[in-house]
Amino acid sequence: xxxxxxxxxxxxxxxxxxxxxxxxxxxxxxxxxxxxxxxxxxxxxxxxxxxxxxxxxxxxxxxxxxxxxxxxxxxxxxxxxxxxxxxxxxxxxxxxxxxxxxxxxxxxxxxxxxxxxxxxxxxxxxxxxxxxxxxxxxxxxxxxxxxxxxxxxxxxxxxxxxxxxxxxxxxxxxxxxxxxxxxxxxxxxxxxxxxxxxxxxxxxxxxxxxxxxxxxxxxxxxxxxxxxxxxxxxxxxxxxxxxxxxxxxxxxxxxxxxxxxxxxxxxxxxxxxxxxxxxxxxx
Length: 283
Ligand code: PLP
Fold this sequence. Notes:
Layout: E1 3-5, E2 8-10, H1 22-26, E3 29-37, E4 40-41, H2 44-58, H3 66-80, E5 85-92, E6 111-118, H4 125-129, E7 131-137, H5 152-163, E8 168-175, E9 178-181, E10 188-193, E11 196-200, H6 209-220, E12 225-228, H7 232-236, E13 240-245, E14 249-256, E15 259-260, H8 266-280
Parallel strand pairs: 7-8, 7-14, 11-12
Antiparallel strand pairs: 1-2, 1-6, 3-4, 3-5, 5-6, 8-9, 10-11, 10-13, 13-14, 14-15
The protein binds pyridoxal-5'-phosphate.
């Protein structure tokens, strides 16, 4: 498999990244996962712009424009023969031989690479029958509105879900004995109660690209949607629950821990159909 590393296409044997790269030593970097379908790249500009904004926020140099990276991504996808796949972008603050917490001098180049991988396997039945979620405490920091490579709490949450027969973790935070839902290890959540939709507001959670598309779909379908703090208890007593992400698209949920839901619910199905229409319009 080829990768794109700092402006060049490189084969596996030629991927020379120094062990002192700040991505490895400090998780000092950002990433994106973008879906490809029949070699076309979905919502590239949205993903690139999210990375660009965070790079500016954290003062990490992203020395390429969207057009340049998009062309390189197309070339990489072609080289690797990827049709249905995942394009992975990573930007780190570059190599720092002294492993100093302070930022390296301005002229130190950052590291940017891309991988084009085949799509991970997801059972097609999941989209029809729904998936199981496991609740898990959100152990993360306060930078969750950025897609940082600092992912250990997400890894723990998702791994806990998988090991207990689940598809995703439903993470929650707790304040004064009140538990509220944040997001998944790599997904955003929606719930339906009495015909009205609710989703956790963007308050230290990732502004998902799929979440944004789905929000527009919900408004377009004429449903009421509240973006607010949503209690875990509310999720457990919802009529319908679904998750959204680049890879999972719109995925119904049939259970959270031992609580069961009708899946897919009527509104979930409508949102799912509308999203699939946009998704397949890329073909
Ligand atoms: N929340 C987290 C923590 C994520 O890592 C992801 C994606 O990986 C999402 C939500 C969904 O975001 P997107 O729709 O942009 O894939």
